[in-house]
């Protein structure tokens, strides 16, 4: 027989972060399968930069280096950023982005647990604003191209900008479905015509939709492990589905279907890995619902009317600003006290 | 230290408008996309400040206290108009680049701040020096900030110098980072905030290091 109090052991940050990394693995495998091994190069680059930068900054701040380095939070930031960047981008893009995330967005604001903005999204937004051309060139899904770079060739391209002879950059890069959709809609093409483009799959981008499904799988694992609570993913995905569903129902020629929004762009990555950041996100249960719904509304608005193809990064950052307000107004009633 | 040295030191370092008083942030943040732009606007501001301090000081006893602010602003506005028209005549290209920010020197709070805080209480020569040194201190900050943003943002230094010194000086533009993609963020407004924050941090760090290395000097009597 057991008696109260039932203490639970506090899960350490390292375990949490390790499980988050583990949950990303299926998505990464699908990514490699769909787009080639370029993403692995980005991941390695981002991880190495993140660890070095983290160690250097901790040293500068006179903090213990090893405990903070081993907690894995820098690695999670690095992986999320690498997964958000185009895998055919030059090496310095990944390095600069990771430095912005770790040094500016994380440590200048006080380090782990203090940063008001999601570091990976700060870096992504900074890079998107600074290098718009590079940030919107994505690889063609392997299914659609005869060009299959080996791992070594990927490495060479990312570092030296050298492609194997006979391969042009244009042949292996394309706009993303979100980007393409936006430009085509501006030219008054109908949704049906646009979806004839060969890089559209069943619901969203060919290949990308499978990667997104794998992120969903990883996210469910995190839910099962109670690393994240259900509030943010459910509120985010439901709100996005409802808004896009209503508008699609009213005018299907102009507004994308809900599944396109759910499986396209960075939706799944955001729902389970980015918006659920315990530091920069809302913490109260009701607050999490509001926070996630806000991200969904902003994401849909930016995707539909904004200047940038995907709105997840900006939506998350904008809602990050509101977190203190949301948290302050959604404090749950303390047991035994009236409101 | 005599009075003039103290005024100079206050303007350039101790009370630097850009780094310590944080006055005049509008041009600091908006016009520092390049070294030349930043420094030019800074020098314009310094000239206006020297002239306005020098003109307010002699009449400081004649102006009734109740209406001193409108009177001071009118004087500053007249001087800014003068500078604006002179630039339009002699540095037309630069005038086109700096645009609205030249007339806006009137509204720059550092100008009125020095008129009100210094020129309204001191004789002409120190007032003029104070105005110029405060303006020059601001100009130096604008130049450094502009230089940093220009190098990071575009990879060049002294771009646009031909607007000031004529077409022959175009060769002076230094390409610091050849074959550079350009880091647009440094040119955009966030870059100004980041850059200014770094400069303030650097100044505070220098100050604290100076204090740490000479802790034995007796504390001077506080003047404030």
List its traits.
A: 339 residues; mainly alpha; 2 domains; 2 strands; B: 224 residues; 67% helix; globular
SSE run of chain A: HHHHHHHEHHEHHHHHHHH
- N-to-C span of chain B: 17 Å
* SS-derived structural category of chain A: mainly alpha
Low-confidence regions of chain A: none
The coarse overall form of chain A would be: globular
The helical percent of chain B reads 55-70%
Which sequence of SSEs, written as H and E, runs from N to C of chain B? Answer: HHHHHHHHEHEHH
Please tally the helical runs of chain A, counting DSSP H or I stretches of 4 or more residues. 17
* Radius of gyration of CA atoms of chain A, rounded to a whole number: 21 Å
The most extensive interface between chains reads: A-B, 8 and 9 residues
Strands side by side in the biggest sheet of chain B: 1-2
Q: What would the principal axes of the Cα set say about the shape of chain B?
A: globular
Q: Output mean pLDDT of chain B.
A: 84
């Amino acid at each position: 027989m057991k008696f109260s109090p039932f203490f639970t052991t506090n899960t350490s940050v390292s375990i949490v972060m390790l499980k988050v990394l583990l949950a990303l693995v299926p998505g990464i495998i699908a990514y490699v399968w769909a787009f080639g091994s370029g993403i692995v190069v980005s991941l390695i680059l981002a991880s190495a930069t993140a660890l070095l930068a983290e160690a250097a900054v901790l040293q500068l701040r006179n903090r213990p280096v090893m405990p903070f380095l081993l907690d894995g939070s820098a690695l999670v930031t690095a992986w999320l950023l690498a997964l958000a960047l185009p895998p055919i981008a030059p090496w310095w893009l990944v390095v600069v982005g990771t430095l912005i995330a770790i040094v500016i967005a994380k440590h200048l604001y006080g380090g782990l647990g203090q940063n008001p903005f999601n570091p990976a999204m700060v870096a992504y937004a900074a890079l998107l604003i600074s290098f718009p051309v590079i940030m919107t060139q994505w690889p063609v899904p392997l299914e659609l191209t005869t060009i299959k770079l080996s791992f070594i060739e990927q490495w060479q391209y990312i570092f030296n900008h050298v492609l194997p002879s006979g391969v042009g950059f244009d042949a292996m890069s394309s706009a993303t479905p979100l980007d393409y959709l936006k430009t085509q809609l501006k030219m008054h093409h109908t949704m049906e015509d646009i979806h004839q483009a060969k890089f559209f799959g069943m619901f969203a981008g060919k290949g990308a939709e499978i990667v997104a499904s794998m992120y969903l799988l990883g996210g469910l694992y995190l839910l099962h492990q109670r690393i994240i609570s259900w509030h943010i993913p459910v509120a985010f995905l439901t709100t996005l589905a409802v808004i896009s569903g209503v508008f699609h129902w009213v005018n299907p020629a102009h507004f994308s279907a809900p599944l396109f929004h759910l499986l396209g762009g960075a939706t799944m990555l955001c729902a389970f890995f980015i918006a659920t950041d315990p530091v920069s996100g809302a913490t109260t249960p009701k607050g999490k619902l509001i926070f996630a719904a806000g991200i969904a509304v902003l994401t849909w608005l930016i995707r539909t009317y904004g200047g940038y193809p995907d709105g997840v990064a900006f939506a998350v950052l904008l809602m990050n600003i509101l977190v203190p307000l949301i948290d302050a107004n959604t404090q749950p009633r303390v047991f035994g006290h009236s409101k | 230290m005599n009075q003039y040295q103290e005024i100079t030191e206050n303007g350039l370092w101790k009370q630097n408008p850009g780094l310590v008083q944080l006055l005049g942030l509008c041009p600091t943040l908006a016009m520092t996309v390049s070294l030349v732009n930043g420094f030019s606007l800074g020098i314009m501001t310094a000239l206006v400040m020297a002239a306005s301090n020098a003109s307010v000081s002699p009449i400081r006893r004649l102006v009734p206290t109740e209406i001193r602010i409108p009177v001071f602003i009118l004087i500053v506005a007249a001087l800014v108009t003068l500078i604006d028209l002179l630039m339009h005549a002699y540095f037309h290209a630069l005038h086109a680049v700096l645009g609205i920010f030249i007339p806006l020197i009137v509204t720059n709070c550092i100008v009125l701040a020095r008129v009100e805080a210094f020129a309204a209480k001191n004789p002409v020569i120190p007032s003029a020096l104070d105005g110029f040194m405060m303006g020059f201190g601001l100009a130096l900050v604008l130049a450094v900030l502009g230089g940093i943003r220009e190098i990071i943002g575009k990879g060049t230094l002294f771009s646009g110098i031909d607007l000031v010194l004529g077409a022959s000086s175009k060769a002076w533009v230094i390409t610091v980072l050849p074959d550079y993609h350009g880091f647009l963020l440094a040119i955009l407004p966030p870059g100004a905030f980041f850059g200014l924050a770094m400069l303030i941090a650097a100044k505070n760090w220098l100050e604290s290091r100076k204090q740490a290395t000479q802790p034995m000097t007796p504390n001077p009597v506080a003047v404030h």
